[in-house]
C-alpha cells in the first residue's frame, strides 16, 4: 500500500473505534522499517563492503527477476530490485487459528485486502502473544515464520536477507510466487490467492529450469514436487477423517480422544511408509510440532486449488499470459460460483492423475 492508503487504514480504525489500532500501527511501522533498510541491488553489489557470497546471491536474484518479467509475464517494476538486511530470520510471523473441532480457519478482516486466514506480525513475541490468547479461548493455533510478503504492487518490495539464505531454486520460487500476487489478488479469498500464486511459482520454476538446461537439477526438483504432492495427498486423507469426527454426534471428550488418535496415527503411518519405501522422512519436521487443526488448515491455503489451476494451465498450452486471463475471469465470479468451477476443474485433474497412474507400469 502507498502511504496514503496506510494513513487511510489508520483513520478507518480510529473512526470506527477499532480495538486493533496497535495491530495496524505495528504493521505500518514494521513495513516502514523494511523499506528504510532497502538499497538498490546495483548499489549493494558495488559496495566494497559487500561479501562475495552476498554479491553472488544478488546477481542470481537479478537474473531471476529479469526472467520473471521477460519469460513469465510477471510485472516489470521495481519490486525485488532492491535489498534489505533485516538481521532476523523472518520478515514476519503469521498466526493461524482454527476451532478445536473444525478445519475452518479463523479469519481477520482488514481494509483493502479483505478477510485473510492469518494475522501477521513483525515481532515474533507479538505473534506468540496472540497465539497464546487464542489458545486460551479454545482455538488450535500455529505460528509460522514468513521469509517474504507482497504489498500487491503498492510498494516496491525488496529482496530480503530472510530468503537469500535459500538456494537459487527456492529464491526463484519465492520471487515468482510473490510477483504473482501483483498479477491477481481477490479480496477476501486467501485460498484462491495462495493457490494461484503457488501454481505460478511451480510453472515459473519449471520454465526457469528448462531455460537453464540442467537435466539433473530438473530431476531433483521434479522429485521434490512429487514428494510434496504425495505428502499433501497423504495429509488430505487424514483431514477427511478429522472432518468426519468433527461432524459426528460424539460427546466432546470422545471427539477430543478420537482427534488425538488420528493425529498420532498420521505421524506414525507417515514415518512407517517412508521407512518401508526406503525414503527419508523429509516432512517429519512438519509433523513433529504444533500438529493441530490450525496447521492442517494452513497447508490447505497453498494447495487446495492447485489441481484446478493445473487443468487451466494445460488447457491454455502452459501459456502464462493466457493462464492469467482465464484465472482473471474466475476472479470476477461470485465466490460460490467460482468455487463450483474450481471444484469441477480440480476433479478433471484428479481423474487424469488416476488415469495416468493406472496406465503406468506395475498397475
General description of the model:
There is one protein chain. 64% of the residues lie in helices and 9% in strands. The chain has 363 residues and is mainly α. It folds into two domains: 3-183, no CATH class; 215-359, no CATH class. It has a three-stranded mixed beta sheet with strand order 1-2-8. Helix 13 (306-315) packs across helix 15. The longest helix is centred in the middle third of the chain and has 32 residues, at 215-246. The termini are far apart. Mean pLDDT is 88; it is low at 1-19 and 354-363.
Structure in a nutshell:
This protein is mainly alpha-helical and 363 residues long. It is 64% helix and 9% strand.
Give the assembly state of these chains: single chain
Biggest sheet: strand arrangement: 1-2-8
> Would you count the extended β strands for me?
8
β-strand amount: 5-15%
Helix content: 55-70%
Domain module count: 2
| Radius of gyration from the alpha-carbon trace, in angstroms | 21 Å
Q: Write down the overall geometry.
A: globular
Following the backbone from N to C, one meets helices and strands in this order, namely HHEHHEEEEEHEEHHHHHHHHHH
**Which sheet architecture does the biggest sheet show?**
3 strands, mixed
Helical/strand content category: mainly alpha
Overall average pLDDT = 88
SS summary, helix count = 15
Low-pLDDT regions: 1-19, 354-363
Distance between the termini: 53 Å
Amino acid at each position: 500500500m502507498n502511504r496514503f492508503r496506510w494513513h487511510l487504514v489508520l483513520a478507518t480504525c480510529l473512526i470506527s473505534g477499532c480495538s486493533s489500532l496497535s495491530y495496524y500501527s505495528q504493521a505500518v511501522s514494521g513495513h516502514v522499517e523494511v523499506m528504510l533498510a532497502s538499497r538498490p541491488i546495483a548499489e549493494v553489489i558495488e559496495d566494497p563492503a559487500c561479501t562475495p557470497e552476498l554479491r553472488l546471491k544478488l546477481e542470481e536474484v537479478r537474473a531471476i527477476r529479469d526472467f520473471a518479467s521477460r519469460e513469465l509475464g510477471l510485472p516489470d517494476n521495481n519490486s525485488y530490485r532492491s535489498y534489505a538486511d533485516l538481521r532476523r530470520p523472518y520478515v514476519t510471523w503469521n498466526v493461524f487459528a482454527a476451532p478445536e473441532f473444525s478445519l475452518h480457519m479463523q479469519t481477520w478482516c482488514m481494509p483493502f485486502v479483505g478477510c485473510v486466514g492469518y494475522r501477521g506480525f513483525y515481532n515474533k513475541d507479538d505473534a506468540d502473544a496472540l497465539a497464546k490468547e487464542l489458545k486460551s479461548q479454545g482455538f488450535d493455533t500455529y505460528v509460522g515464520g514468513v521469509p517474504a510478503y507482497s504489498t500487491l504492487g503498492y510498494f516496491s518490495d525488496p529482496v530480503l536477507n530472510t530468503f537469500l539464505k535459500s538456494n537459487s531454486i527456492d529464491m526463484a520460487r519465492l520471487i515468482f510466487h510473490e510477483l504473482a500476487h501483483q498479477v491477481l489478488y481477490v479480496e477476501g479469498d486467501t485460498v484462491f490467492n495462495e493457490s494461484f500464486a503457488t501454481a505460478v511459482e511451480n510453472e515459473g520454476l519449471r520454465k526457469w529450469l528448462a531455460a537453464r538446461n540442467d537435466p539433473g537439477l530438473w530431476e531433483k526438483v521434479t522429485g521434490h514436487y512429487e514428494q510434496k504432492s504425495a505428502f499433501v495427498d497423504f495429509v488430505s486423507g487424514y483431514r477427511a477423517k478429522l472432518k468426519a469426527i468433527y461432524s459426528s454426534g460424539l460427546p466432546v471428550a470422545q471427539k477430543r480422544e478420537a482427534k488425538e488418535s488420528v493425529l498420532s496415527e498420521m505421524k506414525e503411518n507417515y514415518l512407517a511408509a517412508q521407512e518401508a519405501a526406503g525414503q527419508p522422512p523429509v516432512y517429519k519436521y512438519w509433523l513433529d510440532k504444533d500438529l493441530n487443526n490450525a496447521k492442517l488448515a494452513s497447508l490447505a491455503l497453498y494447495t487446495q486449488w492447485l489441481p484446478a489451476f493445473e487443468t487451466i494451465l494445460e488447457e491454455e498450452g502452459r501459456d502464462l499470459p493466457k493462464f492469467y486471463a482465464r484465472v482473471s475471469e474466475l476472479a470476477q465470479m461470485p465466490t460460490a460460483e467460482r468455487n463450483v468451477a474450481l471444484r469441477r476443474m480440480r476433479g478433471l485433474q484428479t481423474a487424469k492423475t488416476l488415469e495416468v497412474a493406472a496406465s503406468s507400469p506395475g498397475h
